[in-house]
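User: Hey, my collaborator sent me this sequence without any context and asked if I could get a structure. I don't really work with proteins. Can you help?
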Amino acid sequence: MNPTPFPSAPHADAERVVPLHRLAHGRTGDKGNRSNISVIAWHADLWPLLVEQVTEEAVAALFAHRRPSRVTRHLLPRLQAMNFVLDDVLDGGVNDALNLDSHGKALSYLLLDLPVRVPAALCGHLAGPPTD
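Assistant: No problem. I've predicted the 3D structure and written it out in structure-token form, which is a compact way to encode the shape of the chain:
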């Protein structure tokens, strides 16, 4: 196992592990103590990877330190998008929390760092500069 969080593939036919932001962008909002994070694929061919790997379980594990009481994923296949609703992750909500960084965009940036395995055949659809 390679200890590097986002290793580059040693062979052209191998899969790569990259942060989610290379496959998708995000939008977020919050209401009360609930965060709402959307993930939208950069390319339709990347959608199946998102559905397979960006699961409720993966997101709950990523946000375990925020102790969500529930993580719900809603799939929007025609848009190649998904929406996550994370309950009880905002320190009581914007008006009650002392930590403003726990709201809004800060949480979407955390999600967009989630490592995703990408087959070499789909790497041409990744956003951003190559990491090789």
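In plain terms: The radius of gyration is 16 Å. You can pass these tokens on to your collaborator as they are.
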